[in-house]
Records
---
Amino acid sequence: MILVMTWMGINLVSAAGPKAVRKYPIPEHGILELNVPTSWKGNYKSQKDTPTTIIFVPAKGNDFKILITVLGTKTGEQDFNNPAKIQALVKQDGQRILPKAVETKLIVQQMRGVHNIGYFFSLTDKAPNPGEFRYLTRGRMGVGNLLLNVTLLYRVKDSESIKEALSMLREAKQSVK
């Protein structure tokens, strides 16, 4: 059964507790600001010639893993992260993964934030190996002149942590240094 992504247009109530804005410098592109639950542990890797990667996990346990790769254009390409390109890339990514999923049809949904737009899909692994995550939500989101490649891995279908992650992405913003 396809995971229903009703969270796309619904205002979610925070169940994870307090949040704090964490700022991540992105070389040559200012700062990415994410409003993150304070209970999450984060890992941040940024080097000048490689994409910045941000990883979030729970403070205890291994219920989820959130991976965000931040891309920026060095050529000043105007439509680098336009919605039509994002949607096409997400569809292509989903079609590549679909044969390994329980679902037989890919449903790509739009997610809008205050200052950003993205596209996401959710799939269920039909044969996860022991210790692997069963559920996947993946997509891309344009934030300022950045493109966030996002992978959400989780064990519980209606995980509050994943709802928090999607809320964090809707609220993401880019600022100058």
Note: The mean pLDDT is 87.
---
Amino acid sequence: MKTDFIVRQITEADYSTVYNLIRTAFETAEHRDGDEQDFAVNLRNGNNYIPELDLVAERDGELIGHIMFTKTYVTQPDGSRYNTLMVAPLAVLLEYRSFGVGSALMKEGLRIAETMGYQSAFLIGDPNYYQRFGYKLTHLYGINHESMPAEYLQVKELTQGALDGVTGLINM
């Protein structure tokens, strides 16, 4: 069954497979830039990378999905930074969509993030998909981005009230 898979932390041996998985998954995505796989590599090689929050879904030895959470921040009006997470990218191979792979990756990532003490996570994506996980549009909190469209910029509080008093620009 396509619902028989595990979610685990990525290993270095998975990197090239995940690169191709992201590229392939985004070929059929409604919204894409075409460089999502390179974006993931850049995040992994950057200072904001969190190995525990770089996850894959595996079925019978085949990688079928991937998600990554990295550190970022909101610059508040007074210049201070509110530390948070960014989710990007979430990728599932076309033939495994609608089998709970993306949901399992998101839920496990959020669970780990919460146990690590993170209080919120931001992403850019389709609100119709991400609202099922409790994501809300960031402008409802007074948080925006310099150039990203507000209708796709979302946040989830992992701790209730985590964004109380937080406003400004998200760095993504």
Note: The first strand starts at residue 6 and ends at 9.
---
Amino acid sequence: PYAVKVDRTNQIITIFSASSAGVYNVIEKQFICSTGTSKNKTPEGVFTLPDTTRKEWRYFKTYNTYVRYAVHIEGNYFFHSLLYSRPHLSTMSRTSYRKLGTPASHGCIRMLDEDVKWMAENCAAGTKVFIMDCQKNSELNKSLRPPKK
């Protein structure tokens, strides 16, 4: 029932529902995120979420890190939580938290745990994902950033 827009410029994910059949123009939710850095860009384009297993913890061997609620986009690209050194909440990377709202990943899209959990539970296989650059909106980015820790 949703379409997802990832705004790489402002580091914002917008979840849309449809006002009529096939017209996704009602903003349901907006989340702050961290997309890939200039060296490791998050790919631009239109994607369809595949039917892949979603579980609470996933280990990324290449980066020796754990994430929560990984939602596969394509290839090695996922929506996922902040980073953890072990599959335990107390091991969250403070750096990944502080960098939310700025490009900081190797191409995946990092989100707050509760935001990506919502996405994992509500954006089923077949959901369209639009990843793009948009017009700069510093106020929107600032309004969605979590409190400093």
Note: The longest helix spans residues 113-122.
---
Amino acid sequence: MHTENSIVMHAPLEKIFETAADLSLWPKILSHYRWIRYIEKSPTKNVVQMAAMRSWIPVQWTSEQEIDRNGMQVRFHHLKAFTKGMDVVWTFTPSHDGVEVRIRHDLKPTIPLIGRFVAEKIIGQFFISHIAGQTLAHLKRYVERTYGA
């Protein structure tokens, strides 16, 4: 399963990156996030439990986050739940239009009963792509209002 979501933001690259990387902000600025709990915390690597809503459906997972300031990437590796084994990469690309923020999700299902259809349509499109789209839209609104270029 592979999904990608992207959006162009109009704020300084560094502010967008640091806001996206700071998971403690997410429940405050992303209305669909219920909570984030740190299991391990450092400046470049964290293990967190995350909880969000997909419409009226609560979802949660455990993930390892890696913050790569030199490469301008934020990476996640899901450790538990239906998305166990999923790799997520956030990239931040400056352009003449602003900063393109892209979230890429890749998952090879580890649960035998989850076939390609379930992975692509239900996990990928219904849950992941929808939540990632909301995340980008709310992040854009926040950084443009707070740091707008």
Note: The chain is about 30% helix and 45% strand.
